[in-house]
Amino acid sequence: MQTRKIEIKTTTILKFLGILIALVLFWYLRSVLMLLFVVLIVVASFAPIVDWAQKYKIPRVVSTILIFILLFGFIFLLGYLIIPPLVNQAIDLANKIPQYTSHYNFSFETVKQFTLKTNLIDTIKNNVGNISNNLTSASSTIFAALATAFGGIATFIIAIALTFYLLLTKNQITEGILSYIPKKRRELVKKVGGEILLKLGAWARGQFVLCLVIGLVIGIALKIFGLPFALMLGVLAGVTELIPNIGPIIAAIPALAIAFTISPWKALIVLIIYIATHQLENNLLVPTIMKRAVGINPAIIIIAILVGAQLAGILGIILAVPTAAVLSIVFRVWKEQTIKD
Questions:
Q1: Which of 55-64, 80-89, 283-292 is predicted least confidently?
Q2: DSSP letter string over 137-202?
Q3: What kind and span of H or E run contains 214?
Q4: Of 13, 76, 122, 205, whose CB has the highest number of CB atoms within 10 Å?
């Protein structure tokens, strides 16, 4: 029987070691890399505006400063109009949680008189009794994830400065990076990099529009039908829109819980509002705004969300879709080049 001799080249071993070292570095620097990725998404969102202004002889520094003034002005105005009533509603809700809990306790005691499934009722009652603790825990988790990602106010300021610098010097940085790429690959790298920036920018702008529209629709609809805390629930619906697929479900749960304390019919109306808004999103908004921006199979998005949640919690879930979009571009180009070579 003839034996085969397997030879492993030194270059293959070095490539394997290089990939292994890169993965280890990625793991230890994941918080920094996520921050840089967020900065890159912001830059990709506003870069087309700055590039367009430059074509009309407007200096990049002027257009970049104007963008930041408008952006912070919008944030300040939004905060001025929304934060005071939002805080008041949050305080009011916190004060009324015991009242809502006692309502559910009474309902469960009534139901227990007509059912033998007391263990199930006790389980549900105990879960509802811990609503305030669950909300506090969820809030702490979200804020902890954000604090870990940005590392405090100092890191946030650095991120803003880095965004400003990248917008200002995008062309010079691009040329500098391309100078280290072999000449025969420069056009390909430039094309892929441009496609990635376009995809990230389109995703970010589309996501902003989705969050704004869904938040307004839910908030106004709940206000019209007289549900308490409509502003807070609308803001929650807009924010959770950042979480693909499961965001609308998360937003609907507290609204339904509050509506049930008023009447079953009110809860039914609220359920219809959320279902109708979700259908509007799936059949009109997402195909119009996001399909061309992302264009990824829903199964891949779900897998990306699970991986992102495991690696980086809430921020990982939010960044799962743009990360999957970038990887899809890289793998597609790699496959095309492999076929050509």
A1: 283-292
A2: HHHHHHHHHHHHHH-SHHHHHHHHHHHHHHHHTHHHHHHHHHTTS-HHHHHHHHHHHHHHHHHHHH
A3: helix 183-224
A4: 205
Helices (H), 56-117: 60-112
For residue 113, which phi and psi values (nearest 5 degrees)? -70, -20
Q: How far apart are CA 122 and CA 327, in angstroms?
A: 47
Q: Is 3 helix (H, G, I), strand (E, B) or coil?
A: coil
Give me the phi and psi of 138, to 5 degrees please: -65, -45
> Which residues, in sequence order, are CB contacts of 264 under 8 Å at separation 6+?
none
Domain regions of the chain by residue span: 31-336
pLDDT digits (tens, 9 = 90+) for 304-328: 888 888 887 788 888 888 888 888 8
In which region does residue 245 sit, left (phi positive, over 0), alpha (psi from -120 to 50) or beta (all else)?
Answer: left
At 225, phi and psi to the nearest 5? -90, 10
* Rounded (5°) CA angle 308-314-319: 50
In sequence order, which residues have a C-beta less than 8 Å from that of residue 266 and are 6 or more positions away?
Answer: 225, 226, 227, 259, 260
Mean of the per-residue pLDDT values for the chain? 78
Residue 2: left (phi > 0), alpha (psi -120 to 50), or beta?
beta
What φ, ψ does residue 293 adopt, rounded to 5°? Answer: -75, -35
Q: Integer distance in angstroms from the first to the last C-alpha of the chain?
A: 36
Evaluated on CA atoms 43, 305, 316, 243, the torsion sign reads positive
93 is written with which tokens?
């809700």
Contact 167, 60 (CB under 8 A): yes
- pTM to 2 decimals? 0.73
Residue 79 CA to residue 83 CA, distance in Å, equals 5
CB 111 within 8 A of CB 122: no
For CA atoms 170, 42, 309, 210, the dihedral sign is negative
